[in-house]
Each structure stands twice: as C-alpha cells, then as structure tokens.
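Case study.
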Amino acid sequence: MMPEDVAELDKKIKELGLVILTETMPTTEIQFLNSVSEQFETRKYLIMQSDTTNIHFDNLPLKKRYWINSFRTPVIEIDNSVFDTKNNILHEGRIYYEKQILGNDNKSHPISIELQQKADELFKWLRKKLITKKIAHSYLSPKAQNQALELNTELQTGSNNSINEYLKNPKVHVEKHT
Amino acid sequence: MSKNIPNPNGRKGKDDHQSMMESIFKQLLDLFHRVKKEGKIDISDTKYRFGDIVAYDEDNRLIEIHQVGRTNKDGSPVARERKAMEEIEKSRGIKVIFHALIAIVILALTILIII
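After joint prediction, the assembly is written out as follows.
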C-alpha cells in the first residue's frame, strides 16, 4: 500500500468499530490513535472497544516501555508498508491475527467470534478493494504498482527481496510455500 | 498394533509452543527494532518459508530467525525442522536459532523428580 491507501484503511477500521493502539507504549495508560499512519513505523494493534479493559501488558525493561502482549490480548496486527523516500523503496507491510490466545491458565483459548468476523471482513475488503494485485507471493495496491512502474520504486518483501521483476513478467510460476 | 501419532501432546504441545514463542518474542522485542511471529522468509524467487519468530533492524533487514520445535531423542531437531532450517540458512546466510520444545518437558520432569 502507498500512504494514500492508508486513509481508506482508516475509514474501514472505524466502520468495523475497531480502535487503534501502538504495540508498545511508554506507560500502561492507553492512548488511542486516529490513524494507522500515526507513528508510522510502529506496529499497530486493532482491538475491539470491549477488549480494551482486558489488555495484557508486559514490561520491556531495556526499552523502558510496555508491550501489549499479543499472545494474550485479542488483536489484529498491522505493520504499515514503509515507503523509504530517500532510497525509493516500498517495504512490504502485513496484517495478521491469531485465532487463539493464551489465557491466565497458560492454555490456548479462541478469540471472540465477533473479532474473527471483523478480521475476516477486513481481510476480504483489503483483497477486494485495496491490495488487489497479486505479484509473486505479495499483494499490492494499484497505486503501489503504478509507483513501481512509473517511478521505478523498488518493492521489497518482508525479507528484503525485490519483486519488481514480477511486475514485468506476471506469469512467473510461484512455488507453494512450506 | 502401534500407531504413529503425529501430534502426541495434542493441544498441550500447542500451548507449550505458544508459551515458548511468547517468551522469545518478548526478549527479542526488548532488543530489536521489529519482531514478527510467523515471519515470511524468501528462500528463492519462487519459494518462501515462515520463521516462528523473526527480528529486523531499523533498516528492515532480517537479522535473527528463531524456530521452536520438537526434537529427536538425542536432542537434535526432527528431520522436518532440520530441513527447513538448512534451507533458510543456505539461502539467507542467517543461522536459525532452534529452541527445543521437549526441553521444557524434560526440565519439568527433572524438577519433579528432585522434589
């Protein structure tokens, strides 16, 4: 996604009744964000309003911050696509959630049906409306694709592989992941 | 008649796996810029794998890969895990740090015996 795609994502998040928090915070006092573009390079969590009273915080002593423990708090994680303007590189982002979290008994428990439904709806919307182009094993928005083709922006996946050649040759066979 | 049970601990194995992942994740998050569960790792132009926990520096460079898994009786990773680790190490030049899941069970049993 390009930064301008993010505004549409914010609107959808609000429609789904989800709130936005950063992965880590200076204190355990919750501070909501208005957009996933705030503190851009920081991972965001989307949480249901009703779950904000059940956030599990853990201390990060070296960073002197508190982490919203995503193994124990029902969240949808968002890593923004980071556009490195200096080097003209667009880094891949990610939206991710787990269907089970650990409880106080240290056993896995499913997240609420409601959050699962919201997550599924968000994923479907993203694939249908926003990141509609599949290139190699990544998904792009049309804006990101145009940027890459017109301005020669390099598109990098999560492990720093460039996928630009696939734009020129979209019929490359992709092996299933294992 | 013996039966090969692929997941002998059932749900408990999953819980232990998650607990260990949580511990590793928290330690790495306190050290590195960005840490991901099930981080995608490109093996080649057409193939990728997932690392249980991966860590990146401020330039989004992949720098550490951690894998939690079962071991053989001698403590070495099972074949499936070993193959995946070798493939990642060969393609990315990053050593995969393996965390033996069975170690938790052995440690717990050892503590019980001593008590």
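Observations recorded in class. Chain B has one domain: 11-114. Residues 11-114 of chain B form one domain. We will return to this complex in the next lecture.
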